[in-house]
Amino acid sequence: MRSPAPNLARRAGLSAALLALALLAAGVHAAETLRVLAWPGYADPDIVKAFEKRHQVSVQVTIVGSDEVLWDRVSGNAGRDFDVFAVNTAELKRYVDKGLSVPLNLANIPNVAHQLPRFRERERIPNLVRDGQVYAVPYTFSEMGLIYDRQQVKEPPSSIGALWDPRFKGKVLAFDTGGHNFSIAALALGKPDPFQLDETAFREVAAHLVALRRNVLTFYSLPEESVELFRDHKVALLFANYGTQQVQQLKKAGADIGYVIPREGALAWLDCWTVTRGAKNKALAEAWIDHMLEKSVSHTLTERQGLANTVEPGEADDGRNKIIWLEPVEDANRRSTTWGHIVSGDRPVALGAR
After folding, report:
1. What's the rounded Cα separation, in Å, for the pair 316 and 199?
2. For a tag site, which of 23, 79, 161, 169 has the least CB within 10 Å?
3. Between helices 332-344 and 178-188, what is the axis angle to 10°?
């Protein structure tokens, strides 16, 4: 009778190998995960993979398409669902007010030293600093101008009011958000402060937005969506919430377009990275911010997305374009709720009610 020893040895060896594979798999699954909430184009796969390799972690990226969605995602579970997110300076204030963003340790973000001087003067940028503590680091910025089809619009539109022009009815593409749309409608109506509307002005602007809804083809959320709609539906005029990012994408798609800043001025955003109070590993979240400020990553953002970065000098501002930096609004929730009524087609008399 053959001895069972060799079989037992083989079984023991197989068991050991299976155990080793199980432990290896467990190690892989146990890898730390960084949860990032970002805007389109901010966290491309190769940029993410480079961070993952360097820090031996996994990165989970979630993309948002509006300030309202961003607020819902971060505030929905008291900031515990994400570790780090991108937000504009005007919106940042309410995250700090609610304790959803926490102060940064700039020692973990040494690449801030490479930012352009105006972005290192953090005290001069609204909402970045509170009580001497820095809550966010600038990343990218753009104005929100008007994009037009040169074949359909022979004269570049000079006013934001072109969005309401009956000549373009059904050929206008607008951004699906309450905050910015209330502000651009306020500019169109000549209101002195598009971010702070009193009761009378709020109702007037709401009614004007009803007229906008009736004039537009539809509303978009993501820049890629706007490019597809512009191309497939022969759009004549587009409110460019993503600014030069959309200009670049449309040109790459072969669109014959122009881009202008209207005489009333263009809203402009400065997006920053900030860390949530629910971050599982704050130092890792700060390492992500540092990674995004590397010169090669910042250059890639500009090259691919057409967005200005905070590390490399951009085209000189010749002073002709009037830029209106975003500021906190009188009531963000009311604007969002009222916008929802407008999009759904509610009657003007019902709009703006508290």
Report:
1. 40
2. 23
3. 90
Task: Give residue for tokens 């109070």.
Answer: 277
Provide φ and ψ at 265, rounded to 5°.
Answer: 105, 165
Pair 224, 41: CB distance under 8 Å: no
Looking at residue 139, what is its pLDDT?
Answer: 97
Q: What is the domain range of residue 246?
A: 146-260+322-350
Question: Does one domain contain both 183 and 212?
Answer: yes
> pTM, whole model, 2 decimals?
0.80
Residue 351 scores a pLDDT above 70: no
Q: Give helix 89-97 / helix 67-75 axis angle, nearest 10°.
A: 20
Instruction: Please report how the helices 332-344 and 67-75 are oriented relative to each other, as an axis angle in degrees rounded to 10.
Output: 120
209 in any annotated domain: yes
Q: How far is CA 24 from CA 50, 58, 143, in A?
A: 22, 16, 49
Is residue 25 in some structural domain? no
**For 13-27, 70-84, 131-145, which range has the lowest pLDDT when averaged over its residues?**
13-27
List residues bridging with 173 in a β-sheet.
218, 238
Paired tokens of 267: 């809203």
In DSSP terms, which residues pair with 88 in a beta bridge? 271
pLDDT in tens, 161-187: 999 999 999 999 999 999 999 999 999
Q: How many domains, the chain?
A: 2
Nearest-Å Rg of the Cα atoms of the chain is 24
Neighbours of 22 (CB within 10 A): 10
pLDDT tops 80 at residue 114: yes
- Same domain, residue pair 219 and 233: yes
Whole-angstrom Cα distance, residue 64 to residue 82? 13
